[in-house]
Design a protein that fits this description.
The chain has ten helices and nine strands. The protein has 286 residues and is of the alpha/beta class. A seven-stranded mixed sheet has the order 1-2-3-4-5-6-7. Strands 8-9 form a two-stranded antiparallel ribbon. It is globular and about 55 Å long. Bound molecules: adenosine monophosphate, fe (iii) ion (2 copies) and zinc ion.
């Protein structure tokens, strides 16, 4: 079993990178990709770990992008068997700066909605990168929301009163940048984009010329039927298949590393072998 999608406290997960890798080795995962939002810091920290107990650690990142075909943000995963160079890393830095600007506006928005949310409180609650889940946790702590999900549903989710748009790259540009940096570009959790396989098929097909390589078919938010639809689309378009739990630790407490929600996820190791086979020329440390 493998897990190609997880978050550490370098973005909006609760666990330190070393603890996520330790958990992966305890579970006997054969490969783990750390895919924090907009940063490679978690991977950079975890790779220094000496005992990976046979678990291949993969450098990854998750990017939020905008697409004219979808009102919601579209997430793209990137995997690097050979680490990306300085150009890609400085682009990630730019994305993080856009996130900081959004956070300032978001804090002001919450204040204007009557919530006393201060910077010192936010800094105390967040890990190394402040994101909406940290705002949500503070809102729960201060009694403004009943749960993390309630904070999103009533305030923070797209279309809700405290939603502040971030300067996100276009989906096509993000795919191109990943490809230019030698990465494997994967469309993350497509069920969040649309459950209509025909719409998804054309969105995916149009991304192939930009360098899209794969679809995340296995994800806790996918029903068995969704997974089968996306597997069929990947096969038809000759794209690789990826999958992972989207583990966020205590920020998504019902999701387990490796096995997802209630142990229902199983991402076969054969997918990792297939990624290595297809993208062999970029494999260095896997
Ligand atoms: P940010 O990147 O700071 O905008 O935060 C996005 C993160 O918030 C996502 O990666 C999820 O972890 C979480 N998130 C986004 N939308 C929702 C939602 N509707 N319900 C629960 N969590 C969400
Ligand atoms: Fe997240
Ligand atoms: Fe995502
Ligand atoms: Zn994720």
């Amino acid at each position: 079993m493998i897990d190609l999608h997880c978050h550490t406290d370098c973005s909006d997960g609760s666990d330190a990178p070393v603890d996520v890798v330790r958990l992966a080795t305890e579970l006997g995962l054969e490969a783990l990709a750390i895919t924090d939002h907009d940063t490679l810091d978690g991977y950079d920290m975890a790779r220094k770990q000496s005992d990976l107990a046979g678990c291949s650690l993969i450098c990854g990142v998750e990017l939020s992008t905008h697409s004219s075909r979808c009102s919601r943000s579209v997430h793209l995963l990137a995997y690097f068997f050979r680490e990306p160079g300085s150009e890609f890393r400085s682009w990630l830095q730019e994305l993080r700066e856009g996130r900081c600007e959004r956070n300032i506006l978001l804090q002001q928005r919450l204040q204007s909605l009557g919530m006393e949310i201060s910077w010192s409180e936010l800094e105390a609650i967040s890990g190394k990168q402040l994101g909406r889940p940290h705002f949500a946790r503070l809102m729960v702590k201060k009694g403004y929301a009943a749960s993390l999900q309630d904070a999103f549903d009533r305030y923070l989710a797209e279309g809700r009163p405290a939603y502040v748009e971030r300067n996100e790259p276009a989906l096509e540009e993000a795919v191109e940048r990943v490809a230019a940096a030698g990465g494997i570009a994967t469309l993350a959790h497509p069920a969040r984009i649309t459950r209509d396989p025909h719409t998804l098929r054309s969105l995916v097909a149009d991304l192939i010329p930009y360098g899209l390589n794969a679809i995340e078919c296995f994800h806790p938010e996918h029903s068995a039927e969704d997974t089968n639809h996306w597997l069929a689309i990947a096969s038809e378009l000759d794209l690789a298949v990826t999958g992972g739990s989207d583990y966020h630790g205590s920020y998504k407490p019902d999701i387990r590393l490796g096995t997802g929600r209630s142990g229902t996820l199983h991402v076969p190791s054969s997918l990792f072998l297939e990624l290595k086979r297809r993208f062999a020329e970029t494999v260095v440390n896997a």
